Amino acid sequence: MHTFLASSSMQVSVPPNHFQPMKIVALGDSLIYGFGDPEKGGWIEQLRRWWMLPDSAGHVLYNLGVRGDRTQQVAQRLEVEFRHRGELRNRVPDLIILSVGVNDSARLARPDGRTYTDFALFEKEIASLLDLAQQLCPVLFVGMVPVDEAKMPFLDCFYYNHADQYRYKETTRAEFLNPSFFYFLFSIMTPTLFGRWQTRLLLLATVGVFVSLPFAIGWIGSSASSVYFWILCYVAIFGLGWDVLYNYLQKFRSDRDWPAAYQLLAGIWELVFVFCGVKLFGFLPIPLPKEELPLAVFLLHYTVVWLAVFISSQSLMRIIFPRWRFRGGEWL
Question: pTM for this structure?
Fold first, then answer.
């Protein structure tokens, strides 16, 4: 998932000649360098190769990423790197791509250790870096990608986490209220197992119960019955197990994300399971004979609950718990 922020006056930052290939320098840390992508070399390398194809725009892209660089190191080499990347006399690059900050946010030695770059110092350094960069040419900033907290420590000494990433990322984004910048943000929305569990239980216990009430008191369906709360409990209990499977499958995706289409497929699969257990084969007990549970009402109840939970996860959760999606779904 990503967000692109731009001002209506952004056209002032576009290079004047749209028909000539651009010279672009990309500076930053591992995200620029391409660490973690041994097959394709990272997104900068893929973009560079794509622009070398015969029918491409022909832009020239220099990968100047250095693993482990923090804001201070990038600022120290920014202007020198920029001045030495012009291919023609008196020619300098047309665009700077920057990506930095994740290494500044790392905790040292232990999960609650000090951050590699003090937050107050980072605020000053990132403002200084961006001010220098925008004096050279237009700037495109690529925000942090989410870390995998389960694999910490990195190199036996660095502890990265979503909460600190969020703080440092928000400080950087605040600088981009200036229309001289483009900001491209990778939202930290990778679900964790505990995040899945917390979100599922919270939404089913609130939104799920609320939506089930009209069915339970007989406003919808043939008669009042507690069977709908039983079904809700089965969705919650067995869902904890399904979340373990979903979390495992998610690790095979390159972006470690779980898009809305997957949530839809998961909802359909869980419907099939509960239907077989409650209505078709009856191996999940309910407080009335399975024949007395109308199929149409069962399907309507499950569908309404699932849609309400899904919509709430995409809207209310982000409003009530602003940092929820940046913590992998954990709200506690």
Answer: 0.55
